[in-house]
Description:
17 helices; five-stranded mixed β-barrel; alpha+beta
Amino acid sequence: xxxxxxxxxxxxxxxxxxxxxxxxxxxxxxxxxxxxxxxxxxxxxxxxxxxxxxxxxxxxxxxxxxxxxxxxxxxxxxxxxxxxxxxxxxxxxxxxxxxxxxxxxxxxxxxxxxxxxxxxxxxxxxxxxxxxxxxxxxxxxxxxxxxxxxxxxxxxxxxxxxxxxxxxxxxxxxxxxxxxxxxxxxxxxxxxxxxxxxxxxxxxxxxxxxxxxxxxxxxxxxxxxxxxxxxxxxxxxxxxxxxxxxxxxxxxxxxxxxxxxxxxxxxxxxxxxxxxxxxxxxxxxxxxxxxxxxxxxxxxxxxxxxxxxxxxxxxxxxxxxxxxxxxxxxxxxxxxxxxxxxxxxxxxxxxxxxxxxxxxxxxxxxxxxxxxxxxxxxxxxxxxxxxxxxxxxxxxxxxxxxxxxxxxxxxxxxxxxxxxxxxxxxxxxxxxxxxxxxxxxxxxxxxxxxxxxxxxxxxxxxxxxxxxxxxxxxxxxxxxxxxxxxxxxxxxxxxxxxxxxxxxxxxxxxxxxxxxxxxxxxxxxxxxxxxxxxxxxxxxxxxxxxxxxxxxxxxxxxxxxxxxxxxxxxxxxxxxxxxxxxxxxxxxxxxxxxxx
Length: 596
């Protein structure tokens, strides 16, 4: 190492040198950010992870060799500089730099590495530069100060999480990456086995089964910062491979799991953002969230809550409303805080039809002169007065109605309130509204498959008081399941697990897995459950997503060191890619042509 650095030793990081260093000799190392040659004096910005410091090559103060090397420096050259720290003149102070009150007069300089002209700008002053190009040269993109700050920010978040769980008695255990393909809601990534041609491993969508087995093994409190993989379409907040904090606890009820999780979030907010979170966090039921906000992950930073109008509009004379109520469906509304021009109402209607497949969007504007709405042809002024009162609408506001099946109506109005909030800029970006949604339905009915499916996963336990409904009315059964929500985003999900083998088989039957199929897919787990299982429950939350929200990033790609592009391609490594025929032969794999 001494030979590599010509016997030099770095004494300080570039961004850490302050006025207190004045008169001292230091050695700094890093990349040349920019140079400005004024003839007999050269100003060079030198950058490392900590920041930028200005180096001065003064022909009257340094050797001819030193000045000559200074003249040769170009962007992204790597150099080691030894020099004396000097205070800048008052007129030369640069308050935009952390080191803007000092500069280093070079005594000697060693050129450690040259650089070709980079294909991208290595600064934060060109935000519009092509993202795919930045992803292709990600190792250069990561040199930017904002990206280095992100990596440090991420490290601090993860360290805080680890320290918290360690402090309350959790043990971190790593679980396998090569595992078994099991139905968990998304497509698995499969890995062929060379030793067992025709058989495959799967990359884990989560460590769900392993963490339950760790409870059976007596670990009591487990956590892991786990890598997970799901073969699904990428989005701004989704990647094919991602990181989650996974945890499981024995002999607990939901409140104890929630306490452990929200404690971690509170410490992250305090340590990373300096924000105190009041604990315990608020808990609302799934039913309340859906009825009030039309979403099981509601954004509560603005109003426009849903109002049920069934009793008010029943028999009102408007055929759409009357027929909807008569068929056992529902009429609900939200109130937006302005009067909308017709063009904007048409735009919202098209958005809702295209996104939520509704038949139409009815509206009524509350003005000083009365109600302005196409519905006044059918609904009397007296009845409209009742509607306005039930909707809690005021002059200068617009009521939007949707009449349809309950699930469609809630989802559509939930989406409409968010769309209007975005268009009207009603969302306060400085609010972090963190809360629990509890008591989810255990099952949801899949119309296409004609059967129930698990809303969370098939290992979720029922609420004790709903156990008798499992056979008689499975759609009404609530689960001991809970999600942590922030600003309209699901941060994580968890539940108390089924720990009795007979109940687990009963759950498999409810979702259409017969005894033989269940044992084929989960036999190792059902076998383990014969040997004494503690009641247990857990939670998992997305680390990438948490960091994205806390850092104000717009995409997960901004908070992952080496992300995939939207189409799942790694531009830098050029993957996925083909492999040699010899490798495929070894694995016993023949590729099928997709030309047809």
